[in-house]
Amino acid sequence: MISVYNYLAAATLLIAAAFPAHAGEYRLTVSTAAVEVDGRTVEKMTINGSIPGPVLRFTEGEQAAITVTNETDEKTSVHWHGILLPGVMDGSPGFNGFMGIAPGKSYSYTFNIRQSGTYWYHSHSGTQDQSVLGAIVIDPAAPPSAVTDRDYVLLLSDITPEDSDQVLHNLKADPGFYNYSKRTLGDFFRDARSDGLGAALDDRLAWGEMRMDPTDLADVTGYSFLVNGRTPQENETFLYSDGEKVRLRFINGSAMTIFDLRIPGAKMKVVASDGNDVHPVIVDELRIGVAERYDVIVEPASGKPLTVFAESIDRTGYARATLATAPGMEAAIPPMRPRALLSMTDMGMAHGDHGSQDESGSHGNHGQPERSSHEGHHMDHGDEHKMDGQDGHHMHHGPAEHQKPAPQEEKGHEGHGGHGSSMHDGTKTAAATESDARPVGWASGFPPGAKVLAYEDLRRHHAHADNRAPDRTVELRLTGNMERYVWTLNDRRFHEASPIRVRYGERVRINFVNETMMAHPMHLHGMFFELENGTGNHRPLKDTVIVPPGKSVSVILTAREVGAWPLHCHLLYHMVSGMMTAFIVEPPETADRNITRDGAVVPLAVSHDSAAARQGGHAGHGGI
Q: Do domains 4-143 and 145-179+215-341+439-453 have the same CATH topology?
């Protein structure tokens, strides 16, 4: 784990947490410690004195009992990401009556384990989840579908020597504060030679009009990238013997980093996504968004060490670990690939139809959101978009068919690969070279012929018991204003927006329409999405889906988890800058009433009054 210069008591707590009193019981302490980051010693929040905290292990069917003690001077919380549980145990301040853990206080989380798989936990208070995090592994009650000889957790994370709140302040002051890879005059002359002077000028003018830069793949740089708290130099090592099958549980616990992940010299068999088993698919690489998890099986047979290599999407650094037959072994570290340039397609410059669906179920115009001008990327539309007023649920911004149940079957929606359309078969990619020619497009940067995991590859083992057509569609436009570093849903920040309200048992399609130049990993607490990826009734279950720039992704869910649940972008500084809403599932017995974010039951009519809704307990996240 990352170096910690803390008290002996912290080490004692860590040992105690590793050996709970009985199955399912843990004690976690959130405190501050001096840690070394990029050669500097800085104060960071930790769990049990370390970053990350201990791996929590459970078995499906048992009861979890986790006591969290706050020894810091600010409120904190722990959210159990992807875990099915009662709303008050979700750990999201301001939702379902949970208001966080005050300094010097403890909170006991208790819930029944209703699932198995790979999950994680992190703070849901302000910007704390940059360092307050850890992994969760839940063994199935029945024999696992994929039997392996070894089982390892690889928690990927990013950490900065800066104070996390200072990072947000810097972004508010200058959204391009951390973009050190802006195009230069030399880039312009090179483009003019290859594309012609007129084309190069037109390109620069278009980007200038949007006040953006095609190198802006990530908001924050200066991170160190870690595997289980270890730097590339510390080289976290996982042992194997020849002929063994090794399960690697990849968790992207980063604040802001999307990783491109590969193991040179080995294929990866993907067997689970976000904790849920899928039909095995063999890939060379995968792109893993913030909060996503993938379980893969590798079968190293040469006896030689293998490098596990996860480079950040903006190519500013990498996390690294090693599979080896003995401690101390190392394999070659592959060279970093060129940083891709965003294209006008990523910006959604092609006019579309807001992702409306035709009779085949495919999104029109490749699912690209419609815009009236380049200024659409600034997304500050004021009061232009309103709730439709019919039932307080539907965000009405498109054609009339959005109010009707859409066809169940989808045939290759654009963007479902998590990488844009060019990644659907894992091979149609722009080639990355070692020259200074950069790959173009958010989905680019992979070598020719490489099989890269696409969302269309994910297929659930068993058919869904509930395969009803959605009762209605909720459209969520992913919007923002980069000049003010404000991120929004349907042009509303969290404290400005009315929640999405659904009835218990209702089938709902959510259509995420990304009108920005950034990819957004969208996460819903308390339940799973059924990702519409063309697999019919074998839609994979996920709790987090990447929505690429300028693309649409749709999901379906059955609302059977009562409570008020956060729905937000899992890029930390997007969430705390406003890209979040409440998704409220009414209890069956209160069909004529609704729930505010603090758990109170109020008349349904109040939800139609935006002024009243803004008074309903929106103080959950610092910085919003």
A: yes
Q: Are 410 and 554 in contact (CB under 8 A)?
A: yes
Determine the average pLDDT of the residues in 343-357: 47
Task: Enter the pTM of the model.
Answer: 0.78
Q: What are the angstrom distances between the C-alpha of 101 and each of 3, 29, 114, 165?
A: 26, 11, 25, 19
Q: Where are the alpha helices (DSSP H) in 178-245?
A: 185-195, 197-210
Which residues, including other chains, have CB under 8 Å from residue 289's CB and lie 6 or more apart? Answer: 252, 258, 418, 519, 521, 544, 545, 546, 570
For 470-624, CATH number? 2.60.40.420
592: exposed, middle or buried (Cβ count in 10 Å: 0-12, 13-18, 19+):
exposed
Kindly state the helix (H) or strand (E) to which residue 511 belongs, with its residue range.
strand 507-514
Q: DSSP secondary structure string, 77-100?
A: --EEET----GGGS--TTBTTB--
- What are the sequence ranges of the domains in the chain? 4-143, 145-179+215-341+439-453, 470-624
Strands (E), 182-292: 224-227, 236-239, 246-252, 259-262, 268-273, 276-283, 285-288
The highest-level CATH class for domain 4-143 is mainly beta
CATH entry 2.60.40.420 includes domain 145-179+215-341+439-453? yes
Per-residue pLDDT of 303-332, as tens digits, reads 899 999 999 999 999 999 999 999 999 999
